[in-house]
Design brief:
single chain; mainly alpha; 3 helices; flat
């Protein structure tokens, strides 16, 4: 009886968490957060094009790299690096295990 109550509580907590995540995403969509970020990128691009055109018209020596803005943020942490290395290790382990198993089976049947 107690286990059923605990299972129901856990299920309700998970559903509440998912609902809160949904509300956060819905509100950010409705307030136009994504569209605002896209607009800012577009605006920066338009400004760079105008600056490029004015520099070309003025006869300046132009380099395309001076007008392109790149935001490369590195969000990696010790946890993501550890997860990546563990995933690579498990992938290698699984591939080697499957290859050896298939090699063993083929040796049994096709010798």
């Amino acid at each position: 009886m107690i286990e059923e109550s605990e299972n129901k509580n856990t299920l309700l907590k998970v559903l509440l968490f998912l609902f809160i995540c949904f509300l956060i995403m819905y509100i950010s969509k409705e307030t136009g957060l994504y569209e605002y970020k896209v607009y800012n990128k577009t605006r920066l691009t338009e400004d760079a094009i105008k600056e490029f055109e004015s520099d070309v018209n003025n006869g300046k020596n132009v380099n395309l790299k001076d007008y392109i803005v790149t935001d490369n943020n590195d969000y990696s942490s010790i946890f993501s690096k550890t997860g990546r290395s563990m995933g690579s290790f498990i992938e290698t382990l699984m591939n080697d295990g499957i290859k050896k198993t298939l090699k063993f089976l083929s040796a049994l049947f096709y010798e």
